[in-house]
Amino acid sequence: MKYLLGSALIVASSLSFAGAPAPVVDTEAGKVQGYRTEEGIFIYKGIPYAANPFTPERRFQNPQSVQPWQGIKATLSDSPVPQPGRSSAQRLVGHAGDLTLNIWRPDNIEGKLPVMVWIPGGAWIREDATESVYDGSVFAKKGVMVVTVNYRVGVDGFMHFAQRPDNRGIADQIAALKWVQRNIANFGGDPGRVTLFGQSAGAGSVAIHLGNPETKGLYQQAILQSPPMQWISPADASRITRQFTDNLGIPADPEAVARVPFEDLVQNVLKVGEQIKDTAQWGRLSLGGTAFLPVADGKIIVKSPMEDLAITDSNRVPVIVGSTDSEFRLYLLPGDGIQKITIKDVNTVIDELGLPASALQAYTKNSIRAESPGDIYAQIMSDYTFRMPALNIARLLSRNQNTWFYDFSWRSPAYNGRLGAAHFVDVPFTFGTIHTKEAENFVGVNPPQSLSDSMNNAWVAFAKYGNPGWPHYSNKDNKTMVFDTTSRIETLKDPQISALWDKFQY
């Protein structure tokens, strides 16, 4: 169902809905009205939480308060910020405008609902809080309010300029969390029961918030699904900026970049992402998968996201953290790149990561799938990028706070069964959106409903009661929930592999 009104300002008497209207709700900037689905879910899409950051006076600055409006804003549709699309053409999608969020809640509630705030991923260069797999209706049916957040990515969110604040995309998320604290009660949500959750770059963002004292009190618990803990120094970030601006033939300053059309900016984001894959020139930066990463600015990130988690005691809240079995296969199956990997490539990445000499033999014997050099490479990169960061977070946080660890092991039939338990495959199961067209690309046409129910119910239980229903993780017994067609509790799955990473510094 498409809604064409967007965020136009209109008075209550002229509101027109394809479905039934949702109640008018007061926010600090003005009244909003969404719509009601046939299943009894109230949805508000495109609620501004911060002013348009793409204007000349606000470009590359931290988020600022949204301007109040008169009348009722029809919050019926939403759009992400400017970014490269996911189609093969990868052209510009989204548009400049206010920073927005979206809300799902049931029509009939008693008391205040627990709230889950979702930070979508996208390698720090993409995010879209209204993708169909992020539909919060299943959560809402079970009595949990869902908020999904759009934030700046790529150039506007993370490009480093000496004259501008770093990590503007993370600052956007903080602004959204503060908005939730000030406004969510008007929608029927409880600002004292907020679960912050995200996947991929969204989970990396959650980790950054856990290590940042400024976010204390903005949420009461957190879920991290496949968190990358990669970051970049100001010096390396300056190298990226220079490469980016050299490509365009412009000075490496914010005023020059601001004059470049968005279409050219997003295409250059992709170009730089390809350029930094040259390991000889860029070293470990070539393994990041993206040219734009959070910057250790001494403010939002003091040392590194992992080190900040270790030294910050202000956000010791209950946490669920985990990953999928074969994360990196998502990036190697399209275009059949996995078949192009050689044993030389495997040895190069082992050397670049500084892993022990025994790593190749260990991965050959213990990988979930080791039929080719590409399979081994995929597993090493899965561990580097997502799995070992998740395990390290569990080990670190379980010393001081209630922590639950999980592993998603269901093997997708996509790509003739070769995709496996890859990155993002778990997300439609989390939201209960496995039957959407978007999800089909990741989970196939007949995914197990029981697995989706199991994951979604665990997340709901955590949001409502602070316990997902399996034992806490501890460094003594390594209790892990393995989500699969038949889910089960196990101890650490591959101790020989995890031992290779014991001295790795994130």
TrEMBL record:
InterPro entries: AB_hydrolase_fold, CarbesteraseB, Carboxylesterase_B_AS, Type-B_Carboxylest/Lipase. Its EC number is 3.1.1.-. Residues 22-488 form the Carboxylesterase type B domain. The keyword DNA-binding does not apply. Keywords: Hydrolase, Signal. Residues 1-18 form the signal peptide. The keyword Hydrolase applies. Belongs to the type-B carboxylesterase/lipase family. This is Carboxylic ester hydrolase. It comes from Lelliottia amnigena.
